[in-house]
Structure formats: structure tokens, C-alpha cells
Task: structure prediction
Amino acid sequence: MSEIKFGEILLPGDEQEQAKREAKVRKRFWPTIKRAVRVIPFSRDLVAAYYCALDKETPLRVRGILLGALAYFVLPIDTVPDFLAVVGFSDDIAVLTAAFTAIKGHIKDRHYVAADKALSENLTETV
Result:
């Protein structure tokens, strides 16, 4: 995957674009994370990023970057199909890592608390 593609995925977008991405992420995040939780080494960070992206106190630019990365993660068709287990999520991991680097420090303790609760309550049978 090229740097140009990363740049396109991680563009914050305007409020309308962010609203579209947010709707996709809200609809598809939990089914996708349930499939990925065992193969993505930073699932806790990923779920915390989800809560950060939905937090209205998170700066608009940061929300946009996270929503772009999370939308890529939940899309059923991407560069490497996710049904290929670990290899299938490798492109998603690369995009998410780039997003986490760009927004470093914006995922707060409250997002991790929400992530821990969600992972223990909603994914117990999967984890």
C-alpha cells in the first residue's frame, strides 16, 4: 500500500464526510472487531480509538483521522481481504498504526476505560 493511499485514507475530511464515516463505523465496528480481536495485537487500543473517534470532545481533525482509519478497518473490501486471518488484517494494521501515530496523545484514559468495559462485556465469548 502506498503512502499516497495512506494519505487519502487518513484525510480528516469535512463534517459531512466525517458523518458518513461515523455511520459506517458505528454499523460495522463491533462485528469486525469480534472477527479481528484475536489477530490484531492492539485490540484494546483499537476499541479505545473507536470511543475517541465518537467522543464529541475529541478535536475535529483527530476525529476525522480516526474515523477514516476505522472506516477502512470496517470496510468489507480492502487491499487484502480480511477473511485471510492474520494476513488479511495486515493492511488494516498499517493504516491504524499510521492513524495512531498521527493522533498520539488524544486517546484518553476514559476511552481506555470504555474499551476495557466493552471488551470484557461484549466480547467475552470471543476473547
Remarks:
- The mean pLDDT is 81.
- Residues 37 and 43 are 6 Å apart (CA to CA).
- The helical segments are 3-9, 15-36, 43-54, 60-74, 85-88, 90-102, 109-122.
- Residues 3-122 form one domain.
